[in-house]
Amino acid sequence: MARMTGRRTLFAAPVLLTVTLGVFAVAAASPFDPVKAYAGTAGLTASQAELDQLRANLGADRPLLTRWWDWLTSALRGDLGDSAIMRQPVADVITERLGWSVLLAATAFAAAVLLGTALGVLAARRPGGWFDRCTTSLAYTLEAAPAFWLGLLAIWFFSVRLGVLPSGGLTDAGSDTVTAGQVARHLVLPALVLAVSQLPWFYLYVRQGVADALAEDPVRGARSRGLSGRTVLLGHGLRAGMLPMLTLIGSRVPELITGALLVETVFSWPGIAAATVQAATSVDFPLLAALTVLATAAVLAGNLLSDLLYGLADPRVGFDG
To answer: Which pTM does this prediction carry?
Structure first.
């Protein structure tokens, strides 16, 4: 495990360097002008000389490679620079918002894995049965549903129609303090929507894996020896069926990040979604690069985690990847 983690860490360094350079290159080719975005309405009446001076102050007039190298060397020293659009250090922007995004994503991911595994096992017990047909049809339907559409539907039903859950934000209207109870209530809907958007993949993988495992000769032999159906299902079928699902964890991280951004926007959740959108539309180089590196690191960590879990679950594979 240590050797695999070390190799993956060394491999991650050039990937992150390439990603940051790509961010600066794409931002430089973008039609959005960071100077006008920074100036706001004042830029409409500013003279060209004033805009040029502001461009020089922001460093937007320097060559692409120079901007990227200056940002990279500063980032390696722990200085991520200042966000032009947020008017504060990039580290502060991320620190203020990252925790809420992690809370939302982790809660939704855990719920999707647990619920998807449970439903997949139940459906695999009797392939072709009414429960299998209903849950599989629902899974394929949810798989095609956009996260933002599910969010709007959840707001209409639970907040507008039933009035049992808040429609967005982090705390109740008029509240000046953030309490655990308020956060928990406001977390339910966005976490539920994000979990439902990820649920079909885990359900389908577990269902197919467990169904295939139950049809194999070793499992049939276990049944013929008189082992109970519960023991065969959980002790043999579930363990073998979980292996394909473990490889899915890493590949779902990019979709989880994308879904979280959409869900945060719909529910006005104070995560990094708003900062990401503003950084992209305003071509805020330091903030955009830091957020992209963060997302890339999350994807690489997810892939590493899935490989480690697979190696632990199946000793035949080991940790040679």
So the answer is: 0.76
